[in-house]
């Protein structure tokens, strides 16, 4: 069911950053309880291929970069991307405006495409604002607030020109474009580096903190790797937002896996036993949440794993299976799917009971070595989990 | 007042896990502001004794274990326990249903008995559901939700058969029993291990997340130790739940110590100066809380202590005296009672002001070297703390 | 604009603790969105000078210290300070009572003066309660609750006589005084030490947890340094409280910098590029918050920096730019202003969207090497940030 490991691209440890999530970009009507973006083998293959980079352009061909200052250490961008902010179909239940970022206008989604960088890399992203002034005006309450969309990023380095804020005038009016430069500064003796699990988001829509942009879906995950970091086989983004926005829905759409033939996707978390699965966990909105996975745990470190020869210090690091996060917090963990616990339907949910009861819960489906879910995996009921009902046709398709 | 150190059992660092909390199991009407379970010298002695293990059975005599799959690494359970889920007397103030786990039906309590394991051990626990179908039906709102009780655990390894969830059919209907297998996987070069402070809880009562089971009291603490870990002299469980459940009560019952002759118990936290006191801190429910102790602090590590020869790294570890936790979070700390600060009535409370003002506060009573509270310890008022009123007769007795 | 580095005092790494914040003490009408106390070069110079220590007295001249017990390790106080609790002008908007601590009655402020100690030091602070009984009675709801003000501290060691609580009778009635002794116990093989970012606060006003004292402003920051710790060039305190108290104001007063000639102050966070800026971050009240700074990040360690030769362990430490904190939590970070990102107006805000939208946001103004804000720093709009309106005359002056 899953692509065989041989289909996965080379890990390319020293290569420049790659943009992930292309396949996930088609997930528009996510309406997920946990907003999950799949960035798995397929996404990597597509983004990393030599012929399928519609959004990547050569460095030389980007004159607009001259308008952006570079953070110290970034001599010239190593790579360029285009990013589009577009309006998606309104939420079918609430009628709320939905916005998304995409590598192309047609593939915009929320969360947006997951970005990947490696320490040392400098990335130029040109944001095209295709959201109409009318929509953006509708999302603000203060008529003096400017109309635009922006790109603000956590963790990596950027100058005021790439801050994505109103006061720095680093946003994009409707119909315009602007190039943002991110620098994944490496760790040195005096710098802690920028490797980590981060996110990017609008900081302008609706007000000076971009609250309506975030609420509408203008955010995505970013992972910055360090030379030597373990590469995951699959990457999923799980975003914990407010009941008003993305996450707290009472529907089957938290998990749209086909129980017979599960295909990895934004709302279908699947892995084969033994695969290294990476979660990028994002908190946003107004509320606290927790990230809990059944049967799996991780070290509370930068990546969820820990190595080291200093036994006493290694032994001092907490191992956890539940982690609290507030808005703006991001972290990532790498776990080995089914390690010691076998295949099965492993719940992944917020442990705030009223959140999980309202639907902030999904499942990590761990398949056996043959890519199959054992009929009675671990002795569980042969019926699929309650959330596992097939998604309505087209739920993963951009109808825009 | 406290048993002399000589009465404590051997630390037995390499022994298999032992179940703690037997003496605490009698505390049914806890109604505590901080739900506190004492697992001190007495509890250890009882559980570890050779003649007083009513709930432990030999490995060979447990055919029901054949129905449970074992997580990888657990060849066969090293030890077996029985656990009973029973209905306790209703909350005298709110009339709310109270449920508890116990090593015997007569000693069920909430929180339930504190479990202790050591890395490498595999434990089989047979849960007997003695809660009536009528009570369980009363706690659900969805008539399609099954009626049962389960055992879900954090941190250690288990297969889907021991997940304790509805979708895996690993729960126990009224009158039934089921064996759950927990494996405390050791730390290796590729595994972070399972040593830590965890909890176990129902995941079925009322709904697929066991919210009503948790709310009623079906949870308890679990500590998994690593070879070489320091052993505490006393272990207390402090659970921070919602105002609706356990913790936010405005009564004297947060601290039922007899001020003249304090006896350690679930709502009487006592230690002699110099003793190593361990707290297992559990967050549950819907809200955030903080764990704060006056006069004492700890390193923010797996155990609250830190050792190591790498000075720079050791110096990098934060030392704290207040730690935020969300539902599902657990941590543990070991502190030396009265270290540098002497005997006295040291407050232990949630630092959210409206929580502490509503009663989420208790006291760690640190006695002097003679096991006495100095009449004017540290110059304090000779009157006992406000919360220190004697408990109503029988408050610690299971009236069921 | 900023004092040249040459005006800064010697770092004096081995000197005893010094009290900071004298200049900040004049900020009474802070009314800040983020309650910020500047403790910069000026404050250090004043507190560290040999002729300008009005609040420091010789050890020999303090007979009242005899009434206070000393924590183990404190042979005799190394230094003495006076601290005054006074009533400040009522909040001009809400009419709420405002209280503050000050090194002199005239310089009381909220937050109070920032304290600095070094591990090994023992400090005696005599608190004079100049708040009237009438005001204190007004702040309590329970007529049986005593009337007084106290000093409770986190992180350092103290006996019950310095606990600042009701039950220990360690508070100060109106018109009275009391000496509290704090001991910054050093790190040893068996003690984690007390170096860290802490706070002190009242624990008596209004009720046994001092909720009304905290709400009114009776708190301040404390940093305990370890021998060898990096010294910052500037220290700011940012406190995150409830909407009812300090932080959530919708006004220009979150940032009162003069955009032409910014002067560091409690509500004007300024640094020159390359300066090491230290934030002491305090959570108080009832709510959760997050501390987020644009363009800057730090290691999640005791000081925000990390050193060490064990590469694997150093690489395991998370680097973050957003940190959640609950009431009672404190942490500190040292960042290099503008490192890699250049000068500019860098936002500092709570990432809970409804908090930042209500005004829980300010700006770290990073000047260039000449102490100037480039006219178009980083390409930003030449207009000052929205919050940058000049403060009303006298906003930094104690009108009392």
UniProtKB/TrEMBL annotation, chains A, B, C:
The chain crosses the membrane at residues 27-47. Residues 109-227, 248-367 form the Plastocyanin-like domain. Keywords: Membrane, Metal-binding, Oxidoreductase, Transmembrane, Transmembrane helix. SUPFAM superfamilies: Cupredoxins (SSF49503). Gene3D superfamilies: Cupredoxins - blue copper proteins. Pfam families: Cu-oxidase_2, Cu-oxidase_3. Residues 388-400 have a biased composition (Low complexity). Residues 368-400 are annotated as: Disordered. This is Multicopper oxidase domain-containing protein.
């Amino acid at each position: 069911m899953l692509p065989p490991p041989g289909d996965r691209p080379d890990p390319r440890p020293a290569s420049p950053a790659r943009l992930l999530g292309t396949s996930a970009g088609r997930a528009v009507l996510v309406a997920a309880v946990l907003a999950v973006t799949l960035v798995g083998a397929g996404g990597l293959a597509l983004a990393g291929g030599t012929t399928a980079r519609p959004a990547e352009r050569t460095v030389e061909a980007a004159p607009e970069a001259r308008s952006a200052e570079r953070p110290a250490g970034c001599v010239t961008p190593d790579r360029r991307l285009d990013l589009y902010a577009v309006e998606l179909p309104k939420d079918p239940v609430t009628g709320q405006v939905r916005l998304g970022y995409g590598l192309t206008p047609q593939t915009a989604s929320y969360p947006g495409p997951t970005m990947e960088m490696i320490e040392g890399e400098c990335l130029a992203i040109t944001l095209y604002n295709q959201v109409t002034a009318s929509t953006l005006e509708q999302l603000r309450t203060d008529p003096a607030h400017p109309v635009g969309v922006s790109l603000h990023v956590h963790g990596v380095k950027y100058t005021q020109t790439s801050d994505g804020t109103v006061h720095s005038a680093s946003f994009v009016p409707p119909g315009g474009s602007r190039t943002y430069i991110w620098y994944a500064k490496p760790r040195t003796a005096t710098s802690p580096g920028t490797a980590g699990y981060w996110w990017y988001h609008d900081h302008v829509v609706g007000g000076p903190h971009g609250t309506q942009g975030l609420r509408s879906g203008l955010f995505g995950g970013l992972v910055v790797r360090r030379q030597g970091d373990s590469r995951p086989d699959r990457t999923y983004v799980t975003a914990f937002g407010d009941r008003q926005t993305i996450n707290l829905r009472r529907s089957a759409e938290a998990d749209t896996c086909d129980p017979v033939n599960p295909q990895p996707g934004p709302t279908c978390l699947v892995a084969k036993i033994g695969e290294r699965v990476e979660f990028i966990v994002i908190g946003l909105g107004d509320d606290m949440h927790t990230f809990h996975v059944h049967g799996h745990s991780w070290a509370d470190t930068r990546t969820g794993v820990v190595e080291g020869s200093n036994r006493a210090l290694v032994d001092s690091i907490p191992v956890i299976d539940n982690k609290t996060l507030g808005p703006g917090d991001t972290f990532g963990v790498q776990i080995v799917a089914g390690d010691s616990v076998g295949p099965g339907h492993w719940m992944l949910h917020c442990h705030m009971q009223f959140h999980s009861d309202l639907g902030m819960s999904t499942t990590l489906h761990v398949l056996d070595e043959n890519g199959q879910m054992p009929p009675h995996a671990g002795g569980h009921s042969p019926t699929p989990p309650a959330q596992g009902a097939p998604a309505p046709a087209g739920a993963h398709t951009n109808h825009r």
